[in-house]
Write a structure and sequence with these properties.
Helix content is 27%, strand content 25%. The protein has 442 residues and is α/β, with parallel strands linked by helices. It has 2 domains: 162 residues, Lyase, Ornithine Decarboxylase, Chain A, domain 1; 214 residues, TIM Barrel (Alpha-Beta Barrel), CATH 3.20.20. It is globular. The termini are far apart. The protein binds pyridoxal-5'-phosphate.
Length: 442
């Protein structure tokens, strides 16, 4: 059934206060820390993702200090932003990393993470990825089914080692998320071991050679508005921990996943870090284990903006459009999740307009904002799409053969291009200009 995504768009202008102080105006123009957005756009072009190192540091320290007193490690979820410069920054702060594929494991290693700093998760890890993780000596592999556990057991045996395993449990907690696609811990979701099978899987983990049952894990969803789901999930994990301990397990960790919320617009929930720490701290105490946390969005979303340039204005069907040089291939969240990102002119002219901000991609679903009261903009103006540091560049594609944007990291008065803009030649780099045909008939 066709669903009109436009109905999901939140209307109206965003109030003040949702943006991090790192993104302020000087002489009327947006800066990231001490670097002007206009300067970056002039030097690097558009579209470009710009991240503030200061915001990432502040976010890391804020969560770290909320959990002080609880034995814990923060493992940044690389899927939110796997740029190696961002990973390196978090590693230097003391973070571990949480990866969900062989590619992310490779990136993490390239960013200097050692095996002991890495968690591997994911619902569909293949044999090669499991093997790579065992060889890397990762701290924990969170498995999501009995079949995966058995495969991992045979791989570990073959390699003559023991893999530390966490069981990702689906605690079957209904969570309220802004979009159904970011809820993961309710009954029937593809993620995790169904609650009713959890004890059976744990017994298998205790029995199987090459496996150490070291942890219980959950991840309930993203952008969780309250801490209540954590309380319900923690109750289930604690209950299961008691049962598996009686059955002979010596758990070393409880992993509570990610999910802390970020403000994209006024009215969005602020994370209750005190309430969160009380719940997850009690779980760690009760189970006598170290707490593992997998924050993604919380560390990086507010650190980033996507800069784009207005190409054209158009009036059609009673609506005003700003057609910009960034589209759904660069920032998929508005189209895929009906997600709201505040959009401002980099240098506002003091007037506002009600606009659809759309990209160049040949899809009606290619938009960054719909029916949005925002700074009025003209062709040539720069816009900033805010809170784009998480699930931004990483979800991009080259659809319509659009080269991927650049990524820039800002630190005080300095900035560096940490990912160069893709070039046309990159688009065909892996294609074979003279393919070699194999005759499959013999
Ligand atoms: C297993 C797991 N852990 C952590 C995260 C990070 O979630 P968030 O970015 O909401 O913190 C995700 C996100 O999808 C996830 O699937």
């Amino acid at each position: 059934m066709y669903r009109d995504r436009r109905a999901g768009e939140v209307r109206g202008r965003v109030g003040e206060g949702v943006l991090d102080a790192a993104f302020g105006r000087r002489d009327g123009a947006l800066h990231c820390e001490d670097v002007s957005a206009e300067r970056i756009a002039r030097d690097v072009g558009t579209p470009t993702f710009v991240y503030s190192a200061g915001v990432i540091r502040e976010r890391y320290r804020r969560l770290s200090s909320a959990l002080s007193g609880i034995p814990h490690r923060l493992h940044f979820t690389a899927k939110a932003n796997s740029n190696r410069a961002v990973l390196r920054l978090l590693r230097e702060l003391g973070a571990g990393v949480d990866v969900v594929s062989g590619g992310e494991l490779f990136r993490a290693q390239q960013a200097g993470f050692a095996g002991r700093d890495i968690l591997l998760g994911g619902v569909g890890k293949n044999a090669l990825e499991l093997r790579e993780a065992v060889l890397a000596g990762v701290k924990l592999i969170n498995v999501e089914s009995l079949a995966e556990l058995e495969l991992l057991s045979s791989i570990a045996q073959e390699l003559g080692t023991t893999a530390a395993v966490g069981l990702r449990i689906n605690p079957e907690v209904l969570v309220e998320t802004p979009h159904a696609y970011i809820a993961t811990g309710a009954k029937g979701h593809k993620f995790g071991i169904p609650w009713d099978d959890a004890m059976h899987c744990a017994q298998a983990a205790l029995r199987l050679p090459g496996i150490e049952l070291a942890a219980l894990d959950m991840h309930l969803g993203s952008q969780l508005a309250t801490v209540e789901p954590y309380r319900l999930g923690a109750e289930r994990i604690a209950e299961l921990a008691a049962r598996v301990t009686t059955a002979g397990a010596q758990l070393r960790y409880v992993d509570v996943g990610g999910g802390l919320p970020v403000s994209y617009q006024s009215g969005d929930p602020e994370p209750d870090l005190e309430g969160y720490a009380a719940i997850v701290g009690a779980l760690a105490r009760e189970t006598g284990t170290e707490l593992l946390v997998e924050p993604g969005r919380f560390f990086v979303a507010a650190s980033g903006v996507m800069l784009a340039r207005v190409l054209y204005r158009k009036h059609s069907g009673g609506k005003d459009y700003a057609i910009v040089d960034a589209g759904m291939n660069d920032l998929l969240r508005p189209s895929h999740y009906d997600a709201y990102h505040q959009i401002d002119a980099v240098r506002p002219n003091g007037t506002t307009a009600r606009l659809d901000v759309v990209g160049p991609v040949c899809e009606s679903g290619d938009f960054l904002a719909l029916d949005r009261e925002m700074d009025d903009v003209s062709p040539g103006d720069l816009i900033a799409v805010h809170t784009a540091g998480a699930y931004g560049y990483v979800m991009g594609s080259t659809y319509n053969a659009r080269p991927r944007p650049a990524e820039v990291l800002v630190d005080g008065p300095r900035y560096a291009v940490v990912t160069a803009r893709e070039q046309y030649a990159d688009l065909v780099r892996l294609e074979q200009s003279d393919p070699v045909w194999s005759d499959a008939s013999c």
